[in-house]
Amino acid sequence: MEGPRAGDAYNRMYADRVNATTTQILEGTIVYGYKGQNVNLTCIVNHNYDRRPSHIVWYHQKDIVAYESLRKRGRSSLNSITSHHLIRNAEFDDAGNYTCAPELYASASTIVHILDGEEAQEFNSSYRQPYRSVGTMLLCGVLVVLSILYNHRDRMS
């Protein structure tokens, strides 16, 4: 007698969880930088162990601004890859959309705003970016730790 088995439902649920991948820019969807200063963008790709991206491409608007090959990197038990893009000595032309595009997975984007001295003073008095940034980093750290613990538990059983 053919039909669905209890194990089939578990396998489908497990496959859905394992295939859940994310790509995110750690600094958030809006990043503020200052003219003449460096602006760092950090992309975190949580991937399936057996489908690791071989490269990450960074775009500014539609132009490729960085290509990072991941082939020579060692495999991590975290199933996570971090890529950085540094905008050196930021100018107003550097403002706009930045996209982190890992091979095989969805991309993530952020909008970068470049402020001059006067705009920076107004911005700092009305909006506290460092507090939001620290909160985002803490949340991401907690999510990574929980992901590690959750995946480790499954491998042990």
Count every helix, treating DSSP H or I runs of 4 or more residues as helices.
3
How is the CATH topology named? Immunoglobulin-like
Q: Order of SSEs, N→C?
A: HEEEEEEEEHH
In which range does the helix fraction lie? Answer: 25-40%
Domain Ig-like: 4-100
Protein name: Ig-like domain-containing protein
Pfam family, one: Ig_3
Keywords: Membrane, Transmembrane, Transmembrane helix
Question: Which key features would you list for this structure?
Answer:
3 helices, 32% helix, 157 residues, Immunoglobulin-like, 8 strands, five-stranded mixed beta sheet, globular, alpha+beta
What does this structure look like?
By secondary structure, the protein is an alpha+beta fold. It has a single domain, classed as Immunoglobulin-like (Sandwich), CATH 2.60.40.10. 32% of the residues lie in helices and 34% in strands. A hairpin with a 2-residue loop joins strand 4 and strand 5. It is globular, with a radius of gyration of 19 Å.
